[in-house]
Design brief:
- The protein is of the alpha/beta class and 349 residues long.
- It folds into two domains: 298 residues, NAD(P)-binding Rossmann-like Domain (Rossmann fold, 3-Layer(aba) Sandwich), CATH 3.40.50.720; 38 residues, no CATH class.
- A seven-stranded parallel sheet has the order 3-2-1-4-5-9-14, with helices on both faces. A three-stranded antiparallel sheet has the order 7-6-8, with no helix packed on it.
- Helix 1 packs across helix 8, helix 4 runs parallel beside helix 6 and helix 7 crosses helix 9.
- The protein is globular and about 60 Å long.
Amino acid sequence: MKVLVTGGAGFIGSHIVDALRARHVDVVVVDSLDPGVHRFPPAYLRKDVDYQFADLRWWRPDASALECTAIIHLAALGGVSRAAAERENVLGANAWGTARLTEIAQQMPRLRTVVHASSFSVYGAGYRYRCVSCGAERDGTRAESQLARGDFEVRCAACSGVTRILPITEAAPCDPLEPYGASKLMQELCWRGFTHAPIHTMRFSSVYGPRLRTHDGEATIIAKLIGWIDLGRRPQLFEDGQQLRDWVHVTDVVDTALQLLETSEPPRLVNVCSGVPTSLFAACEAIAEALGRDTVPEVVGGYRVGDMRHCLGDASTMMALIGRPPVSLGDGMRRTLASASGRPTLTTA
């Protein structure tokens, strides 16, 4: 097996590359080393991997890349705020870059499998909520006028009661709420009609683990929380701090990708998540405990239009595939923050 990993110099991609090389699989990486992510080449890049630093939109693969038998497509410009500020750049890189990859893939005579990385952001308003009082269900949309009043819950459309989020399954409709989610759905759609090899799709909830960037403007919320608490700063939480998120450790992502590479089953769609809801406030407490800090988050209120109130996935498909439960948040935080010196094993590159 020889695998092309797009975005293989990034946080998730580098862990997949390490796992492939541990199995003695030949790897070709194409990565733009986007300056919005990397100020310089990461120190974890390997000498036994063929790195081709280029933007997928303009990449010209050499003979070595075209010999690959599998593709793991991770390359994308990320970040909800970045996508809102750089619509053309993010939509272009993600959708056009993937479209370009589909053309390249058709030129790969030995290609047998494609594993595509998507995001829970494609679900958007596709989440379902059930009323605690009357049992009625509804989607997750919230009116801006409601948010402006400081009412952040998804209210029952029938009785205005409190609702609870239902774990989202792979069968849920896609209804992205913002440009980044739209770009990830566009990436998925780029593979429609591709018959050269089966396409397996992973939809990630929020991923964390070693090498997660914590000190830049486009870091994910879990990364920002870690970065702030590590620096002794109180995390500032929008809304009421009780937003639920589903965080998945990068180990679960790696194991899912490797299993999909080897499966002989028809194309799969897999939610890569923990299936465990954790509030932002509780996540701050878990991080502070792992770091040995007594930092308490500050709830500042306010809101961002397009943010999902809660995010929770159904991990049953992933668990059946990898043959074990997901890594717990407590264990995952200890793995993420532990090192021989006792300091966080994080990167600011």
